[in-house]
Design brief:
The complex is a heterotrimer of chains A (about 150), B (about 375) and C (about 375). Chain A is mainly beta and about 150 residues long. Chain A has one helix and eight strands, in the order αββββββββ. Chain A has one domain. A five-stranded antiparallel sheet of chain A has the order 6-5-4-7-8, with no helix packed on it. In chain A, strand 1 (about 35-40) and strand 2 (about 50) form a beta hairpin. Chain A is globular and about 70 Å long. Chain B has about 375 residues and is an alpha/beta fold. Chain B folds into two domains: about 5-120 and about 210-225, Thiolase/Chalcone synthase (Peroxisomal Thiolase, Chain A, domain 1, 3-Layer(aba) Sandwich); about 135-205 and about 235-380, Peroxisomal Thiolase, Chain A, domain 1 (3-Layer(aba) Sandwich), CATH 3.40.47.10. In chain B, about 35% of the residues lie in helices and about 20% in strands. Chain B has helices at about 25-40, 55-60, 65, 85-100, 120-125, 140-155, 160-175, 185-190, 220-225, 255-270, 275, 285-290, 305-310, 325-330, 335-350; strands spanning about 5-10, 50, 80, 105-115, 195, 200, 210-220, 230-240, 280, 365-370, 375-380. By secondary structure, chain C is α/β, with parallel strands linked by helices. A nine-stranded mixed sheet of chain C has the order 3-2-4-7-1-8-11-10-9. In chain C, strands 5-6 form a two-stranded antiparallel ribbon. The radius of gyration of chain C is 19 Å and the shape is globular. The chains are: A mainly beta (about 150), B alpha/beta (about 375), C alpha/beta (about 375). Chains in contact: A-B, A-C, B-C.
């Protein structure tokens, strides 16, 4: 009989390249090149979406109108992550929140920084801090700091 | 008791090897919008959504939740089903049961895959058992190649025989605006194409495709008001019999396809499928499979498929056209592929298949393949089920 | 809706790590238990719905691992990738269609075999949310804070959920984490992600659960204590976390409304005798209680403080110990259905809610309870 249960270590490695799509590409282009936030507005319900949508999820009609939102916004909710995990972009403790940019109807999830963690409050006004060299992804914003 | 169910609309994307212009959600939305339009419905009319794909091809966990902006399911009941390559037909069957149960009247079924976003072989290899089969599993092509070799040995079919399937399907695809590969090929082209895993060559095997398909299933009551050409679902059957690739019964006809077809025919009272079916949309992952599995449909004796095909029985003008859409060898967005078979079968019996219409088609069979040699079968007809 | 009953159930003991068992072993165990419980053989099962997830299993086509073990050979079978309550919903629909007399539904998950952080991080939008490093804990913390701040619910009130449920678990032989703790213990436990502390969170778990549904004619012949499905509903909300107000469980409200309508329930708090709801985190039992209409919005803190949801209270919630005491993902929702079945049969032993006739089972899917499924069961 077997003395000990055998445990087999393995790892799945599947590389991915996710297409952002035309609309997403414009969003990241504006973020990277101009440090601006561009959103789209549904012609029917007038909801302003960020990240930008090509079709309204509710009205299901194509969206063509683009408008600038933010860069400032309000912190809707946040949390201070105290455990470490390899998925974190920066070491723990790190603060993550949902930011409602001025003019947008949907919030953006991002890091909160440039402030003592204990001082972060919901409702706080925040503004983005951009990284030096943009790469065309969401971390072109390093974090949102109190405005 | 349940209610009768019909397909009242379908939509597909123009399938391509790579759609970089849209993200996955937007791809899904294209097919969804087309299906709604075809059915004459808006998103508000949908009671529930069922969606499927193979997770590791896009690396998204909980795809039903992630795609909600594009799958029409916002604020609605939505669930995900997934069974490997059979996913597309599994989704269709799930949507069928949603409506047949009487709990929902109009249900949207969506299958999709964006294969360009990952290493397909790396992802598919994870389907094999990590201890017993993954270390040596060479991926889908290699797996199918061992099967193909077995068929050659058992039935004496040749690479040339199998090539007939690729030639037929690729010729049909030219008339299908949605198909991925739309150029005719010859038997010589197939024989000269690069060898991938003996005996499967590049033109013997299905491509990798980015694409989505959506199908609207409706109750009899709803269907009445929506279309005068509903495609009724008569029977559905599933056989997902095996767990290990080495368990697969390779002694003869494709056992799961055979069993599922026999259950469908038995329940539908079909005694002579060759003549009682008007068209078949068959999930054939490779030309060899597409040849040998024909007898699993019960339309000829074991080993006779070569004769059937070379006699032209399965051509567009034959007794039983197979894959007027061009089949899987022309388009393979895996999570959608099975659903495309269902959509195409429905289009045939509704007379909506345009240039690749089989004239007068009334009864169609749609099959799905995947996983560990699993099969799903659906019987669809313009005649209302009794 | 035609009458369909649950005639058999099976659960494994939920544990941190079932090293000696594969997915197939777990599934075979609970399928065997459920068949025995129903007093039937696998040959009496018409069709099977399995529930599994490719990420949790580290295997695409995760259903393949359990095809043999669930008795699917030669039968119609399908697989739902989502919480067990949704899988059971599909199993029910297949019977209601008239095609089948019985459906076996079985779910499995081994949280011990993968990284919870990586797997739940993969739930999020790869382009806009995954890159920020969210996982199930941090995202739920965003919801917890939003809910608590909007409605004035306190951490201590949330802690009461943990205290109650872990104590209830002491009487449940299947539960993983059974213990007698105090609110102070919870408040002092390690902060994971504000405001969620270690004792506010469910554990990582391995386990499986199976239920057998049967149409009336078969249930009456076979089952001594059939438990009838009276109402069901499911619904989903927006996906991106910023697309909805996380404090508003709209999808749950919709799902519950449908289930209540079908079951003819007008005053849920009064008419339901026992509930098993999906408390992956302590705040969730409160938030979902409100979504289910057990009390007004913002009042769930007061509800638990009143003792109404304790054993012996007006509406005991999670007599099994709930998800906070055992959380095999996907399985946990099906286990809620199994536990309510136990209650309505009067088989709860030490965790029995006396005289329970009408029960509610609830499951969630997606980040921050994006989708909900509600079941109303009756004796």
């Amino acid at each position: 009989m077997v003395e000990e249960e055998i445990v087999y270590q393995g790892r799945i490695k599947v590389p991915y390249t996710w297409s952002v799509g035309e609309y997403g590409s414009r969003f990241f282009y504006e973020l990277k090149e101009n440090k601006k936030f561009w959103a789209t507005r549904c012609p029917k319900c007038k909801k302003v979406f960020i990240p930008p949508r090509k079709t309204c999820p509710d009205c299901f009609v194509p969206i063509e109108e683009w408008l600038e939102v933010g860069p400032d916004g309000s912190l809707v909710t946040f949390t201070i992550i105290r455990y470490s995990a390899q998925v974190h972009p920066v070491p723990a403790p790190l603060a993550v929140g949902i930011i409602l940019l001025d003019g947008a109807d949907t919030g953006l999830v991002h890091l909160i920084g440039g402030v003592e963690l204990e001082e972060i409050r919901s409702g706080m006004r925040v503004r983005p801090v951009f990284r030096e060299q943009g790469k065309g992804n969401l971390l072109d914003i390093s974090y949102f700091e109190p405005a | 008791m349940g209610q009768r169910v019909a397909i009242v609309g379908t939509g597909q994307t123009y399938h391509r090897s790579s759609r970089k212009d849209v993200n996955g959600v937007e791809l899904i939305q294209e097919a969804t919008a087309r299906a709604l339009e075809d059915a004459g419905l808006t998103r508000k009319d949908i009671d529930a959504v069922v969606i499927g794909n193979m997770d590791h091809f896009e690396g998204i966990n909980y795809v039903d939740m992630w795609s909600i902006d594009g799958n029409g399911g916002l604020h609605k009941p939505i669930m995900k089903v997934t069974t490997g390559g059979t996913t597309g037909t599994t989704v269709a069957i799930a949507a069928f049961y949603h409506v047949a149960s009487g709990l929902f009247d109009t249900v949207l079924a969506i299958g999709w895959e964006k294969n360009s976003e990952s290493d397909t072989t790396a992802a598919i290899i994870t389907c094999a058992d990590p201890f017993w089969e993954r270390p040596t599993f060479g991926g889908a092509i290699a797996g199918l190649a061992t099967g193909a070799l077995g068929y050659m040995h058992r039935y004496g079919i040749t690479e040339r025989d199998a090539a007939l399937i690729s030639v037929r399907d690729r010729k049909n695809a030219v008339k299908n605006p949605y198909a991925h590969l739309r150029e005719e090929i010859t038997v010589e082209d197939v024989l000269n194409s690069p060898m991938l895993a003996y005996p499967i060559k590049l033109l013997d095997i299905c491509p990798r495709t980015d694409g989505a398909c959506a199908v609207v299933f409706a109750s009899e009551e709803k269907a009445k008001h929506l279309t005068d050409r509903p495609a009724w679902i008569h029977q559905v059957s599933t056989r997902h019999n095996y767990t290990f690739f080495t368990d697969v019964d390779r002694s003869g006809r494709m056992p799961t396809l055979y069993e599922a077809c026999m259950e469908v025919y038995r329940n539908a009272g079909i005694k002579d499928p060759l003549h009682e079916l008007d068209v078949v949309e068959m999930y054939t992952p490779s030309s060899f499979a597409g040849l040998v599995w024909i007898d699993a449909l019960g339309v000829c004796d074991e080993g006779e498929a070569v004769k059937l095909v070379s006699d032209g029985v399965t051509e567009m003008d034959g007794e039983l056209p197979i894959n007027p859409s061009g089949g899987v060898i022309s388009t393979n967005c895996i999570g959608a592929t099975g659903l495309i078979r269902v959509a195409e079968a429905a289009m045939q019996v509704s007379g909506k298949a345009g240039e690749h219409q089989v004239p007068g088609a009334k009864t169609a069979l749609a099959t799905g393949f995947g996983g560990c040699h699993w099969s799903d079968v659906l019987l669809i007809s313009s005649r209302k089920p009794s | 809706m035609e009458r369909v009953a649950i005639i058999g159930i099976g659960q494994t003991k939920y544990e941190r790590s079932k090293r000696g068992e594969t997915f197939a072993d777990l599934v075979f165990e609970v399928v065997t238990k459920a068949l025995e419980d129903a007093g039937i053989g696998i040959e009496d099962i018409d069709n099977v719905v399995t529930v599994s997830n490719d990420f949790w299993d580290g295997r695409t086509i995760s259903s393949m691992a359990v095809t043999d073990a669930c008795g699917a050979y030669g039968k119609n079978v399908s697989t739902v990738e989502g919480d067990g309550t949704f899988g059971a919903f599909y199993g029910l629909m297949r019977i209601l269609s008239g095609s089948f007399r019985s459906t076996l539904v079985v779910a499995h998950c081994k949280g011990s075999e993968g990284s919870n952080h990586l797997i739940t991080n993969a739930m999020f939008n790869p382009i806009y949310e995954r890159i920020i490093g969210l996982d199930s804990i941090s995202s739920s913390a965003l919801q917890a804070r939003r809910y608590m701040e909007k409605y004035g619910v306190t951490e201590e009130q949330c802690a009461l959920v943990s205290v109650k449920n872990h104590r209830n678990a002491l009487k449940n032989p299947f539960a993983q984490i059974a213990m007698d703790i105090t609110v102070q213990d919870v408040m002092r436990s390690t902060m994971l992600s504000d405001p969620i502390k270690l004792l506010d969170a469910s554990p990582i778990s391995d386990g499986a659960c199976a239920i057998i549904l049967a149409k009336e004619e078969m249930a009456k012949k076979v089952a001594t204590k059939p438990v009838w499905v009276k109402g069901i509903g499911h619904s989903a909300d927006a996906y991106n976390l910023g697309d909805r107000d996380l404090a508003e469980p709209e999808a749950l409200i919709r799902a519950a409304k449908k289930a209540y309508q079908m079951a003819g329930i007008q005053e849920p708090f009064r008419e339901i005798d026992v509930a098993e709801i999906y408390d992956a985190f302590s705040y969730q039992e409160l938030l979902w209680s409100e979504g289910l209409g057990f009390c007004e919005r913002g009042e769930a803190g007061g509800l638990i403080e009143s003792g109404a949801t304790d054993m012996g209270g007006d509406l005991p919630i999670n007599p099994s110990g709930g998800v906070i005491s055992a959380h095999p993902v996907l399985v946990a929702g099906l286990a809620r259905i199994a536990e309510i079945t136990i209650q309505l049969r009067g088989d709860g032993n030490g965790r029995q809610v006396d005289g329970a006739k009408v029960g509610l089972a609830h499951g969630i899917n997606g980040p921050c309870g994006q989708a909900h499924c509600v079941w109303i069961l009756e004796k």
